[in-house]
Specification:
alpha/beta; 8-stranded mixed sheet; 6-stranded parallel sheet; globular
């Protein structure tokens, strides 16, 4: 039988709850520990998801000998600190997106993991979903000819609360890091890093980007047109346009979704892709196999891609004059 991979979750917020749902009941997988800044929240989370080992500190989780890999789910500015804590304790790490605040932080974490021979990956779960796997297959088959353009949006309308993680610069607030990263990552997956970036952002009362329109120009002339927002609810669709047709991924393209293939001169084909649980399970299953085989990274979400995505976002923020505390 395959070795059971024992997971720990660092942080107990909304994303940690979703991840726990996706992780539970998977073959060869066990959620064994949770780490929080307080015993009460660790206990509550542990009871909700049947987690036996409940730590009242992040250090306690990192040092737990029963844990193989830690999922870091804290706010953006704490990702590097928490990732290094777990790597330093000899744990493999899956870190929530955005992986870190800037390229220097990403590079530091990558170097640390590689120096110690430990698995490390950004939790860009979208790339592992069944509909995205099928889309990559169709593109490889030339279903829409040569892919030349991407149009994608991800935005939602939130009430302005200056102390919330979405609007507080000290918590890495803003649309680009919170949801725009999904669209930037999709552009990188399809075309690779851009050679040029352009775009405009509306900076709100707290100084973070509330709405932004982005253009990425890629190595072979491909174009990515991206819209992101935390003050506008967008259609949540992605359209991949080729020389012989297009693929329209329906709402919400970044989570379990369906899509329609439009081939030139043919009737549209609708693809309904089953996705059990909530979708977070697919990246977990992939990572489990990497850990069993001793691999230190993912070919679907490689660390070099994480670094390039962060550099792209940094280039956009530079154009807007958006810097975070400590940068």
């Amino acid at each position: 039988m395959a070795k059971t991979i024992r997971w720990g979750i660092l942080g107990t917020g909304a994303i940690a709850n979703k991840f726990a749902v996706g992780l539970n009941h998977l073959p060869g997988t066990e959620l064994v520990a949770v780490g929080s800044r307080s015993a009460e929240t660790a206990r509550t989370f542990g009871e909700r998801f049947g987690v036996p080992r409940r730590h009242s500190s992040y250090q306690g989780l990192a040092d737990d000998p029963e844990v193989d890999i830690v999922y870091v789910s804290t706010p953006h500015p704490f990702h590097l600190e928490n990732t290094l804590l777990c790597l330093g304790a000899g744990k493999a790490v899956l870190c929530e997106k955005p992986f870190a605040m800037n390229a220097a932080e990403v590079g530091r974490a990558i170097h640390f993991a590689r120096e110690r021979g430990l698995f490390l990956m950004e939790a860009m779960w979208t790339r592992f979903l069944p509909h995205m796997v099928r889309v990559r297959e169709l593109l490889a088959e030339g279903a829409i000819g040569e892919l030349r353009m991407l149009q994608v949006n991800f935005g939602f309308r939130a009430e302005v609360k200056p102390q919330s993680r979405l609007f507080d610069p000290a918590l890495g607030g803003g649309a680009l890091l919170d949801v725009g990263v999904y669209s930037v990552a999709l552009a990188h997956m399809l075309f690779g890093p851009p050679t040029e970036v352009a775009g405009f952002a509306n900076l709100g009362s707290t100084g973070v980007d509330e709405e932004a329109a982005l253009i990425l120009h890629h190595n072979e002339g491909q174009l990515s047109l991206l819209a992101t927002a935390i003050r506008l609810d967008t259609p949540h669709e992605a359209t991949l346009i080729g020389t012989d047709g297009w693929i329209q991924i329906h709402r919400s393209w970044w989570s379990p979704a369906n899509f329609t293939l439009h081939r030139s001169g043919r009737d549209p084909e609708f693809f309904e892709i089953p996705c059990p649980l909530n979708g977070y399970n697919y990246q977990v299953l992939a990572i489990n196999e990497h850990l069993r085989s001793g691999e230190l990274g993912s070919n679907i979400m490689p660390l070099d891609d994480t670094l390039a995505i962060t550099e792209t976002m940094a280039g956009l923020r530079d154009r807007w004059g958006l810097k975070y505390p400590g940068e």
